[in-house]
């Protein structure tokens, strides 16, 4: 069994994933980190996933992402946090659906927006001057896909991290 956490950038996938990994004693994988590792392996260059996206383009980034997602297929007892756009790719969606239980960390739109604006850099696909327009477009594009893909939804807006963790463990029958 694997747990796959997905949702909008800034919803807490990596944070929650690391905590669940510690609680369960399972391995943790973050596809953004794995993309950086694969890029370094293939090119010898060390760039953040944001810089890879910006310098190499969306198509190249999604190809790396597909390779990373494909490499996870034999995992067991793992927590996997996937990038917010991973589900846009049909191959990645199909692999994830067979890889484990899909948990959508649903965060209210304004909270996602606040978190993104509080980060030192915006996501690679956003520009400061067009932030409002692009954010709205991406949120509206992805939200229905997230709902269609989810096996479980955990709303994390006003819950503590402890409540979120317990909710995920409870819905998956993993509470001790």
Structural class by SSE content: alpha/beta
What is the name of the CATH class? Alpha Beta
Q: Which sheet architecture does the biggest sheet show?
A: 5 strands, parallel
Weakly predicted, low-confidence segments: none
Averaged pLDDT: 90
Task: Assign a percent range to the helix content.
Answer: 55-70%
Our count of helices gives 8
Overall geometric form = globular
- Would you tell me which CATH topology applies? Rossmann fold
As a percent range, the share of strand residues is 5-15%
**CATH architecture assignment name:** 3-Layer(aba) Sandwich
Distance between the termini: 16 Å
Query: Can you identify the CATH superfamily?
Result: P-loop containing nucleotide triphosphate hydrolases
**Strand-and-helix sequence, N→C?**
EHEHHHEHEHHEH
When the domains are counted, the total is 1
Q: Based on DSSP secondary structure assignment, what is the total number of beta strands?
A: 5
Side-by-side strand order of the widest sheet: 2-3-1-4-5
Rg is 16 Å
How would you characterize the overall build of this protein?
The protein is α/β, with parallel strands linked by helices. It has one domain (2-171): P-loop containing nucleotide triphosphate hydrolases (Rossmann fold). 55% of the residues lie in helices and 13% in strands. The chain is built from eight helices and five strands. It has a five-stranded parallel beta sheet with strand order 2-3-1-4-5, with helices on both faces. It is globular and about 45 Å long.
